[in-house]
């Protein structure tokens, strides 16, 4: 039992480090957009396209790697992704043509798909009553890799960089982060173990045919959690890319550092508070405490539903705070929106492995992949030219979230929730063999 416990925590540490670095290398271009634009002669619009391309591969990539993790085990798939990302990052350091550079960085940006691999790996080792906290720690600390990259890379690879291979700081950054990625790939493959027991590994593997995946992807539970992730993680992506512009343009805040700092308060809440969302779900499930009578007995569902409702209310509050004309009001409510995102995201990924113990990778892939769509769609509302001002876009986004909340209220009802992990829109209602995760 002691060895299992030690390996369990090693798995959490390994997955968290791997995901944290994946986020760092995913957004490693961001601190260097200025010198890259100067060298390649890029316009602001072209830099924007480069930034948005980081999300393009996420929906399909996460679905694929989630399924592959179930079939072949997380250590092998995580190692493969880290290895090829490292190789292409190194290649991008030597690219002289912008078209070649863009394609190479597009491939490097697939580092973001590692999220679902780690989710699956942690789920294979942790018992059901602690899944929410474990997944919350993994995802919360992992997401911080993006902020870490913004703080660390420009300081290590400063404007005066003149190393042995490169005299250009961003080329050096891409080269050396690529080297680290390859080393992490070797470490992950060497130290990682796919599951707590061979029986658990086989039960997960047996559900990985295409017909089984299609049914898994269209089960009621998968569909509602994917929709919920659009309005939580998708919202987080959209706000991360928009808030600095909003605080600057809507409040005539000319100081870019201050505007970016205010925007960072949202990112801090959305990332570092995520374990709170998972722990709350675990706590209700362990204590079997009902906080919403109409969802009696569905403890994790109650916590997730409240998180979704909180997001909608705070999005409407963002509009009111903006219309007040007081910047500090908008910053405070922005922090609370980030808190709502963290709450819902942690709750959702406490539910995923708890509801689908033998399909956690496949379901995480669908939920994580579909969720990124919000990062593409919501910014269109924030900056819509037909709105009277920049404050109203948040309320428009909130209105589009109401049907998702209504869908969750239906699926989370006791009579539907009991079959939500087996019944769906496509395929059989039969699950594969269920294997308990076991205790420490």
From TrEMBL:
Segments traversing the membrane: 12-34, 72-94, 100-119, 173-191, 212-235, 255-273, 303-321, 327-350, 362-381, 393-412
InterPro entries: MFS, MFS_dom, MFS_trans_sf, NO3_transporter
UniProt key word Membrane: yes
Gene Ontology BP annotations: nitrate assimilation
Sorted UniProt keywords: Membrane, Nitrate assimilation, Transmembrane, Transmembrane helix
Ranges for domain Major facilitator superfamily (MFS) profile: 11-417
Subcellular location: Membrane
Main location: membrane
Molecular function GO labels: nitrate transmembrane transporter activity
Highest taxon, organism lineage: Archaea
Family the entry assigns: Belongs to the major facilitator superfamily. Nitrate/nitrite porter (TC 2.A.1.8) family.
Listed name of the protein: NNP family nitrate/nitrite transporter-like MFS transporter
């Amino acid at each position: 039992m002691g060895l299992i416990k030690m390996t369990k925590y090693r798995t959490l540490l390994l997955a968290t480090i791997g995901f944290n670095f994946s986020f760092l290398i995913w957004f490693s271009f961001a601190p260097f957009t200025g010198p890259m634009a100067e060298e390649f002669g890029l316009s602001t619009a072209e830099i924007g396209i480069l930034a948005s391309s980081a999300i393009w591969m996420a929906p399909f990539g996460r679905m694929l790697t989630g399924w592959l993790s179930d079939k072949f085990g997380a250590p092998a798939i995580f190692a493969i992704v880290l290895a090829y990302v490292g190789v292409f990052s190194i290649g991008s350091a030597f690219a002289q043509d912008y078209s070649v550079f863009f394609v190479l960085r597009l491939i490097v940006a697939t580092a973001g798909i590692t999220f679902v691999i780690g989710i699956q790996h942690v789920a294979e080792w942790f018992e059901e009553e602690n899944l929410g906290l474990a997944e919350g720690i993994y995802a919360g600390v992992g997401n911080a890799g993006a902020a870490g990259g913004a703080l660390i890379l420009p300081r290590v690879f400063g404007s005066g960089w003149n190393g042995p291979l490169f005299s250009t700081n961003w080329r050096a950054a891409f080269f050396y982060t690529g080297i680290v990625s390859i080393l992490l790939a070797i470490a992950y493959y060497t130290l990682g173990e796919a599951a707590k027991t061979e029986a658990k590994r086989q039960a997960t593997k047996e559900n990985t045919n295409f017909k089984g995946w299609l049914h898994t992807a269209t089960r009621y539970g998968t569909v509602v959690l994917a929709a919920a992730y659009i309005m939580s993680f998708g919202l987080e992506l959209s706000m991360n890319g928009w808030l600095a512009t909003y605080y600057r343009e809507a409040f005539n805040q000319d100081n870019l550092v201050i505007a970016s700092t205010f925007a960072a308060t949202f990112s801090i809440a959305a990332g570092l508070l995520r374990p709170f969302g998972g722990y709350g779900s675990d706590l209700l499930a362990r204590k079997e405490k009902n906080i919403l009578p109409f969802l009696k007995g569905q403890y994790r569902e109650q916590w997730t539903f409240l998180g979704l409702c909180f997001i909608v209310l705070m999005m409407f509050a963002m509009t009111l705070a903006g219309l007040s004309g007081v910047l500090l009001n908008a910053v405070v409510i922005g922090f609370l929106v980030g808190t709502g995102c963290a709450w819902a995201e942690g709750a959702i990924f406490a539910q995923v492995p708890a509801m689908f113990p033998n399909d956690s990778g496949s379901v995480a892939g669908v939920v994580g992949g579909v969720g990124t769509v919000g990062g593409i769609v919501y910014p269109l509302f924030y900056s819509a030219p037909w709105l009277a001002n920049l404050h109203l876009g948040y309320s428009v986004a909130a209105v589009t979230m109401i049907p998702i909340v209504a869908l969750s209220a239906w699926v989370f009802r006791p009579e539907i929730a009991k079959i939500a992990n087996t019944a769906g829109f496509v395929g059989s209602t039969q699950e594969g063999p269920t294997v308990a995760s076991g205790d420490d």
